[in-house]
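1st attempt posting a full record on here, be nice pls
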Amino acid sequence: MEIPYADGGPAAEERRAMGPVECVVLAFPGERLKVAAVAAIAELRKEGQVRLIDSLVVVRSPAGEVTTSELIEYDEYDEATAEIGPEANLLGPEDAAEVAQSLEPGSCALMLLVEHIWAGRAAEAIREAGGRVAARVPIPDAHVEEARAAYEQAVAAAAGRS
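the predicted structure (as C-alpha cells):
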C-alpha cells in the first residue's frame, strides 16, 4: 500500500525504510476526546517515534447514534495532526462502524493509523536479509503489569543478596 504524505512524500529511500504500520484504537468515556491524550500522541510524533498517517474520531451518543469526524477538523489538535494531509482517508466508514460496535453509549474513540518510525531502520535490515515480520501479538495490559511486578521483585531480591 502506498502511504500518502502531506508534504508530497519523502525520498524513495525513506519510503523503502518505512517501519511497521498499525491501526490503534483509543477509547474514552464521554463524547469528547481528551486534549491531554491527543497531546501525548503529538509528543510521540514530534520526537520522531511515530508518523501519524491517518486518524478518525468515532462518537457513540447516549442514544447509540454514531458519528465520525477527522481529527484534522479540530484546531486544538493541530500539533498531533501536522503531517496528515487531507488526502489520507485510509480509515473509512467500515472501520468506524467496526469500532462503534465496541463503544459504550456516550463514549468516543480515536482511531490512529501510525507508522512506528523507530523500527524503520531495523525493518529495512530485516527485509535486506530476506526476512519479514511473520506475526505481531499484542500483549494485554494485565500481563504486562504482572511481568513488570515479577521483574521488580527479582531485581529487589537480587539486590538483597549483594
